[in-house]
Amino acid sequence: MTSVQQPALKDEDAEHPVPSAWRPTLSAIVKAFVQGDYALKQGIPSVAPVSAEKARHIQRYIAKYGETLSELPEETWATSVAQWSGRRWDVLVDLWTVESGCSDMVLHALVSETDAGFSFEIHLVYVP
């Protein structure tokens, strides 16, 4: 069964599903977090470096949440969203934990178009 490809839509008036092309990169970011690499020191193509301060904030927030972050299952794309802001997309990826499955936490990322495709910047991990 082939899944439907979700394009990157530039719609300032509504949220849309996270584009299919971005999902592997966003999954790789969360996988790095699961492995304790909050600064993304291993590097992920097209993802901006994460400052030490931001990495500490993300690590503390996830620890304070009190559950064990897990890699993203395919189901996360049914509820995660992206919205065009006029210059870039704001993306909210629902995060999952070992204990509860889908959690209240989200990864907030900023995605911009570049000549080479898309670039990603991690904004925060938090409970909206």
Order of helices and strands: EHHEEEEE
Low-confidence stretches: none
Termini separation (Å)?
A: 34 Å
Radius of gyration of CA atoms, rounded to a whole number: 14 Å
Average pLDDT, all residues: 95
Outline type: globular
Total number of distinct structural domains: 1
Strand content: 25-35%
* Portion of residues within helices: 10-25%
Number of helices in the DSSP assignment: 2
> Largest sheet at a glance?
6 strands, antiparallel
Q: Report the strand count.
A: 6
> Which structural category fits the helices and strands?
alpha+beta
How does this structure look, described?
With 128 residues, this protein is an alpha+beta fold. It has one domain (16-126). Helices cover 20% and strands 32% of the residues. Strands 1, 2, 3, 4, 5 and 6 form a 6-stranded antiparallel beta sheet that branches. The radius of gyration is 14 Å and the shape is globular.
